[in-house]
Amino acid sequence: QVPVQLVGSGGGSVQAGGSLRLSCIYTAYPFAMAWFRQAPGKGREAVAAMSEHLGSTTYAESVKGRFTISKDSLKKTLSLQMDSLEPEDTAEYYCAADNTEYSAASRRLAESSYAYWGQGLQVTVSS
Contact 80/72 with Cβ under 8 angstroms? Predict the structure, then answer.
């Protein structure tokens, strides 16, 4: 596999109902990319994932209809648009990438499916 480097940006603090956008610049040409999050005292969970060749996007039930994952291949940037934010969305967010794609949604949302990770981006939503 060609190593992938990921550098995230964005995040911050917002009131409930507000919006934030996260970005992640990447190197190489990963086939699978995703966003994960980890709230204080909890494990890391998938938020959204997308596959280059399968042309699919997958979302966690908790964010469907509110979050949108997208990728600009020319700018080599992965983004996560977060709308209608809730206090429960407060967490450290991470972008992830791998050169292996999976057809099963469960695998696309699995932390073990990604070898490369960006740094954490803090998102805080107040009520």
Answer: no
Task: Tell me the torsion sign for CA atoms 62, 71, 40, 102.
Answer: positive
Token pair of 44 as six digits = 């890391």
- Give pLDDT tens digits for 8-54: 999 999 999 999 999 999 999 999 999 999 999 999 999 999 998 88
How would residue 96 be classed by pLDDT, with cut points 50, 70 and 90?
very high
- 7: enclosing H helix or E strand: strand 6-10
Sign for the pseudo-dihedral over CA of 94, 110, 107, 81: negative
Instruction: List C-alpha distances in Å: 86 to 18, 52, 62, 117.
Output: 8, 30, 10, 25
For residue 56, the cross-strand partners are 51
66-83 mean pLDDT = 97
Strands 77-82 and 56-59: unpaired
- Cβ atoms 11, 123 nearer than 8 A: yes
